[in-house]
Amino acid sequence: MHKKIVVLIGNGKRHLYFAKCVNDAFPLSGIVVEKKYSPQVRLPKFLKSTKFNPFLFVRKLYEKMVLAKIDSRYKKAEVGILWEGKKAALPHNVPLMQVNDINGNATKNFIGGLQPDLILVSGTSLIKPGLINIAGDGKIINLHTGLSPYYRGGPCTFWCLYNVELEYLGATVHILTAGIDSGDIIISERMTEITPSDNEATLDVKVIKLGIALMCEAIGRYLDGNLKAVPQWEKGRFFASKDRTFQKRLELEHKLRSGLISHWLSQNSNRSFEHIRTIS
């Protein structure tokens, strides 16, 4: 019997790549795209962050200009590593809904109409209980681009680098609950493909590729009736995007230019990190 699978994603190039890869392996019944990065959404959010204070507005604008070169690396890595120079695009012939609020009625009605057997999440805003309840217990699984329970929240690649803990780079596929990256783990793996020429963006994209492979493995297990999940064995640490401040981003840039990755590799290339538990 054909199982209906729906994905809920953001609208970044990495999220479109997630939908493409999953659809290539397991044809989708629907896609919901949250327009997180559209100008209509980002501009009001930016203005709100300035509290409509003109001095704060100028400062925030200056910070964005300073960080523009760093941010451009993400676009370059996504186009080059994920899309291999091709234009990012959603799969054709799959029912599509684009929304401003992933938890809104449009998403709920879309899911209610399709009645999917499984829902996959990658890169959306926090999924709230109302949507989780509509989907049904255990029917939503999330791709977390961090290694739970050690690194929850986001952006975990940044924090692993900032804390000089590259051993915790990795991805986790877990049952989505009302908590943040705290649901039972289906499969997780460390990302060990690290080279001296990497930067924050290339490592982040490598984590995404790993996570998509893990998600496809999880879907296969689900379709085979062999999907199991393990409760998280510790609380771990939670990292918030709002704490990735302008100053911290500049600090990390300085660390990277000073050879953070090369130094870490020279010190840790032969370590097995057996204390870090993953689920296979």
Task: Tell me the strand order in the biggest sheet.
Answer: 3-2-1-4-5-7-8
Shape, please? globular
Task: Tell me the distance between the termini.
Answer: 27 Å
CATH class: Alpha Beta
CATH superfamily membership: Formyl transferase, N-terminal domain
**H/E series:** EHEHHEHEHEEHEEHEHH
CATH topology grouping: Rossmann fold
Radius of gyration: 19 Å
Instruction: Please identify, by name, the CATH architecture.
Output: 3-Layer(aba) Sandwich
Number of separate domains: 1
* Structure annotation, total helices: 9
Instruction: Specify the structural class.
Output: alpha/beta
Query: Which percent bin holds the helix content?
Result: 40-55%
Protein architecture, described:
- With 280 residues, this protein is of the alpha/beta class.
- It has a single domain, classed as Rossmann fold (3-Layer(aba) Sandwich).
- 44% of the residues lie in helices and 15% in strands.
- The protein contains nine helices and nine strands.
- The chain has a seven-stranded mixed β-sheet with strand order 3-2-1-4-5-7-8, sandwiched between helices. It has a two-stranded parallel sheet with strand order 6-9.
- Helix 3 (54-82) packs across helix 7.
- The longest helix is centred in the first third of the chain and has 29 residues, at 54-82.
- The protein is globular and about 55 Å long.
Question: Which short descriptors sum up this protein?
Answer:
about 15% strand, about 45% helix, two-stranded parallel ribbon, Rossmann fold, 9 helices, alpha/beta, about 280 residues
